[in-house]
Amino acid sequence: MLRSEYPRPQFKRSEWLNLNGEWEFNFDDHNIGLKNGWYSGKELFEEKINVPFAYQTKLSGVHDTTFHDVVWYKREVTIPENWGNERVILHFGAVDYRAWVYVNGQQVGFHEGGHVSFSFDITDFLTYKTETIVVRVEDPSTDETIPRGKQFWKEKSDAIWYTRTTGIWQTVWLEPVNETRICKTKYTPNIDNGDITIEFEVSGHYENKKVDLEISFQGEKVASESIQIFEKYNKRAINLYSQHIFRTNFHNDGWTWTPETPNLFDVKLTLRDETDEVLDSIESYFGMRKIHTENGMVYLNNKPYYQKLVLDQGYWPEGLLTAPTDDDLKKDIELAKEMGFNGCRKHQKVEDSRFLYWADKLGFLVWGECAAPPYYSEDAVARLTREWIEIIERDYNHPCIVAWVPLNESWGVPFIRHDKQQQNHSLAMYHLIHSLDTTRLVISNDGWELTKTDICAIHNYNHGSSDEVSKYEEFKDSLFTKENILNSRPAKRNIYANGFEHQGEPILLTEFGGIGYKVGEESGWGYTSVKDTNEFIADYKRVLDAVYASEILHGYCYTQLTDVEQEINGLLTYDRKPKCDLEEIRKINNQWHRETIKG
């Protein structure tokens, strides 16, 4: 079975049941399933599908890329005997876009939002014989008010738009829990004084219970506390500096989290009742990491940090948005680091929690981004807002995430340059995210037409081909100084929307390059093109030379890590084969850069 690993590594319980694998499956093109009672589980579905792969993928076993806006899933499962006294939770990693879930013919819940996790307590619907789980999914293929990211609203992929993902595309699983249990954790580091603030919630009959908290670092226990529970919400600040193993190296990188030193602290939370019986036990982790801006630069743990990011769209040829294996997620990070990148901008996708886990473990910065709706409407605003609230709740604890990107290139806000309503949407997203997360940077509209923002993030693909000398010089000159950058108009768009201007925030080139290089039988396009490996390396260096010549840029994000469908502008092919010696890319990425920025 593919995707058999534990799906939620930051909130891990020992016992669970993976429901990935073969499910029954039906298209419902005439939307008759509800009327005909398919939710009862008595209907014999015509197809089989391999969950968690969408029906459009090869790995699903269906591999149909035509429009089917309503689909149904069915799976029979037997609850383990030793779960009889527990509550049983049904978890979905992600289902695109709307999901109705039924157990033994009764609806147990509904969720809207295609990129985040959700769960339902199904205990009261169980028979403890053979249970039937049915999922009905709606994914309106042409609706441009739902957050769809790179999923095209036409049947065939084209330009920068790719094959859609409909239905279940992340792990489905069952978990037994006590009625009184730990239901949420939150870790907020403060490296300036060595504190980690730990918040957790306890559901059920929490009165007079206690939680034993234990923190370890590299196998050595560094802090422990027994916390008496009197209310649902609990909060503790623990000073790590006071622990003896950190007194000598508190002010170096021996215990903080960076891409170069991805130090993690292990956490164990054990909930006990009045007789000391264990009701719940959670394994987790956190990293001590700080990100802020100052003097036109981004600082990581109070030191200027030049971000060398790569645009990562998170698509695979056989699984689309779903990585075939957990090792594939890990491999993408390892390949990027091998090329000298210290992070990625995860583009128009909320990535699987397992990717963020590997980024935490391996040391890899992540800019978290959400799929955008192509069209502006009040419905689109509401849908995007709800999704962001759930994204931050799910991913807050990952130290790898250093920035949030709610909007990209004015997608979904096409008139933001002058339209006050659309500008207010950008401002609302900026302030909403900061109201939920004070520990990260927020980029208001990555690319151009920025409003209030923590980073001035600019896209510019105008480097030209190697024989277009004047175009290249213009590209290089446009990046050279702050004045030149802020007065440039890449894609014929102003850097800031009307009424907004640069307030001293760091300036980063967050999309550029996209050099097209055809390998084998591939066909497709890039922003410029080369014919062989030598040209590819030379052109990459040519473009990066212009970036490193800048007096003002404090980081970049190169487009892109891999080819995706008709786009052949990756450093790797779609199936992750290097297009050149990766050491050559690493040498170019590791060129000198300024630690201080003028202007």
Structure description:
- With 599 residues, the protein is α/β, with parallel strands linked by helices.
- It is 17% helix and 30% strand.
- The chain is built from eight helices and 32 strands.
- It has helices at residues 326-338, 353-362, 378-395, 420-436, 469-480, 482-487, 533-548, 582-589, and strands at 17-18, 21-27, 47-51, 70-77, 87-92, 95-96, 98-103, 106-112, 118-121, 131-138, 167-168, 172-177, 181-190, 195-203, 209-217, 220-229, 233-239, 265-272, 278-286, 291-294, 297-300, 303-304, 307-312, 343-346, 365-369, 401-405, 441-442, 456-459, 507-513, 515-517, 528-530, 553-559.
- The strands form eight sheets. The protein has an eight-stranded parallel β-sheet. It has a six-stranded antiparallel β-sheet with strand order 3-2-4-10-7-8, with no helix packed on it.
- Helix 2 (353-362) links the parallel strand 24 (343-346) and strand 25.
- Helix 3 runs parallel beside helix 4, helix 5 (469-480) runs parallel beside helix 7 (533-548) and helix 7 (533-548) packs parallel to helix 8.
- The longest helix is centred in the middle third of the chain and has 18 residues, at 378-395.
- The chain starts with 16 loop residues before the first strand and ends in a 10-residue tail after the last helix.
